[in-house]
Automatic annotation (TrEMBL):
Bilayer topology: Multi-pass membrane protein
Domain G-protein coupled receptors family 1 profile: from-to ranges: 11-233
InterPro entries registered for this protein in UniProt: GPCR_Rhodpsn (IPR000276), GPCR_Rhodpsn_7TM (IPR017452), Olfact_rcpt (IPR000725), OR51/52/56-like (IPR050402)
Protein name: Putative odorant receptor ASOR1
One Gene Ontology CC term in the entry: plasma membrane
Highest taxon in the source lineage: Eukaryota
Localization annotation: Membrane
Length: 233
């Protein structure tokens, strides 16, 4: 875990350093990529340092406040991973379908405003469920059936009616997963239709190649998350 964490940090910090030192990369696409790097650093920094003591030293105690703080930030950054991938899909569809108008449609300022909007949305999506879970009475078992303070395993320990918490968690999870994923699928359907209209095979391959890295990121992120959600239910 420590090695994975260090490699993740190094890779993302190198990406951020290259972006900061190279003025030619300061365009909407790389603003979105750097946002994803910041989210990746933050998510791993919330989860892995808390997991190492559990697996390595068998220190499986966490205070009430720390648990809910970790829960909030873990889900906040998890939401942002999903939204950031959707943002990159938006950037790609503009770049491929409107290449000559790309820099006028998708400016750095517009990208920053969109980022501000999705960070605010992610915050609002998480603050109420976590606050609601923290107000529940926990008078029975306090053993969380998870390696970290996830929302579901924690609120299920409450000794009161949790039906509303369960419905809220399901609705929020589906919105965070299916909303961005549906948008990504839609944007790639638009991209495929646009690319098939290209006369040159070279142009088609170049257009698909620009999307390849993003598609891999989408698969790496969504497949484990969806499998974990399905198996967990």
């Amino acid at each position: 875990l420590s090695i994975i964490y260090i490699i993740t940090l190094m890779g993302n910090f190198v990406l951020l350093a290259v972006f900061m030192m190279n003025p030619s990369l300061r365009n909407p696409k790389y603003v979105a990529v750097c946002n994803l790097a910041v989210v990746d650093i933050s998510l791993n920094s919330v989860i892995i340092p808390q997991m190492v003591p559990v697996f390595v030293f068998n220190l499986n105690y966490v205070s009430f406040g720390t648990c809910f703080s970790q829960m909030f930030f873990m889900h906040l950054f998890g939401d942002m991973e999903s939204f950031s991938l959707a943002l990159l899909a938006y950037d790609r569809v503009i770049a491929i379908c409107f290449p000559l108008r790309y820099l006028t449609i998708n400016t750095n300022l517009r990208m920053l405003l969109i980022l501000l909007g999705i960070w605010t949305l992610a915050f609002l999506l998480e603050v109420y469920p976590v606050a609601l879970a923290s107000s529940l009475p926990y008078c029975a078992s306090r053993v969380v059936q998870s390696c970290c303070c996830e929302h579901g395993p924690v609120y299920r320990l409450a000794c009161s009616d949790i039906s509303f918490n369960r419905k809220l968690a399901t609705a929020k999870t589906l919105a965070v997963l299916l909303g961005p994923l549906s948008f990504i699928i839609f944007t790639y359907a638009v991209v495929v239709v646009a690319v098939l209209k290209f006369a040159s095979t070279t142009q088609r391959w170049k257009a698909f190649h620009t999307c390849l890295t993003h598609l891999l990121l989408v698969l790496v992120y969504y497949l484990p998350v969806i499998l974990a959600y399905v198996l967990g239910n």
